[in-house]
Amino acid sequence: MVLIGKLNLNRKSLIVALTGAGVSAESGVPIFRGRGSMWENETARNLAGKSGPPWNTRGTWEFYEWRRELVSRCEPNAAHLTLVEMEDFFYNFYLITQNVDGLHHRAGSRKVLELHGNMWKGRCPRDGEIVDLPKTPLETIPPIHSCGEALRPHVVQFGEPLEQKTLEAALDLSRRAELFLVIGTSGVVSPARDLPLLARKSGAVVIEVNREPTVLTPYVTLSIRGMAAEILPKLWEDLKKTIN
Ligand code: APR
């Protein structure tokens, strides 16, 4: 790829990757929109229908336990593992994810900004404390905080604000990135979708990896069509050859 050859990267370059549900698709985790999405599953639809504010009810946790149980049977794929390799290679590599499945952590990624939270954590609506909930099934539904209040999933729901410091860190990295990868996202949810646009505007080379065109495609430097678990390892091999 001509573009890759022109990148003047070194180990100190600031590299940012933004991922969406598509990066976990080949691990067996359903995406949110389109074919193979969670909403094609009747159980998910029914459970999601009972989930809602204040988000710490039995209904919400039955939906999230369905997702947690499914993900507990999935393994990180080659795309997750390639991002770990890149994090190990570059001194300034950061991963920003919209996913709440925890597969980047399980793959070994350490520098991860979870824009939408993580469904393996609970949060107390009363005092805001965040609690790890690594085991599924949960002992009680809903899980109860030490203060006696029912926990909610530490996941951003539609209409809720993102954690300000996480968003500010993501915006700062997007402004400073030399290379910005956007992998497996439909690009329809803000503010995540604004990050690659900000990176491009700030002078980064933005490379999209997706099995199909997205609303972001016209705005990126290069859009590579294909499955993340297949494309990303190859892209990383090509990138490595150009690094002095
Ligand atoms: N490789 C690459 N891309 C893929 C693959 C794959 N194997 N499989 C699917 N995709 C792409 C789809 O083409 C689509 O563009 O992944 C994208 C998945 O889009 P969505 O299901 O909309 O997921 P995402 O973009 O992560 O959604 C953003 O919306 O529902 C909210 O909070 C939720 O974080 C989520 C946010």
Structural account:
The protein has 244 residues and is an alpha/beta fold. The chain has two domains: 14-28 and 75-116 and 162-240, Rossmann fold, CATH 3.40.50; 30-73 and 119-155, SIR2/SIRT2 'Small Domain'. Helix content is 35%, strand content 18%. It is built from nine helices and nine strands. The strands form two sheets. The protein has a six-stranded parallel β-sheet with strand order 3-2-1-7-8-9, with helices on both faces. β2, α6 and β3 form a beta-alpha-beta unit. α5 (78-89) runs parallel beside α9 and α7 packs parallel to α8. The longest helix is centred in the N-terminal third of the chain and has 15 residues, at 58-72. It is globular, with a radius of gyration of 18 Å. The two termini are 17 Å apart. Bound molecules: adenosine-5-diphosphoribose (APR).
Offer a quick outline of the entry.
The protein has nine helices and nine strands. The protein is an alpha/beta fold.
Question: What are its keywords?
Answer:
244 residues, alpha/beta, Rossmann fold, SIR2/SIRT2 'Small Domain', 2 domains, six-stranded parallel beta sheet, three-stranded antiparallel beta sheet, 35% helix, binds adenosine-5-diphosphoribose
Helix count?
9
Residues in β-strands, percent: 15-25%
What's the CATH class label of the largest domain?
A: Alpha Beta
The ordered H/E elements are HEHHHHEHEEEEHEHEEH
Task: Please name the CATH topology of the largest domain.
Answer: Rossmann fold
Kindly state the percentage of residues in helix.
25-40%
Shape: globular
- Biggest sheet statistics: 6 strands, parallel
Could you say how many structural domains there are in total?
Answer: 2
Span between N and C termini? Answer: 17 Å
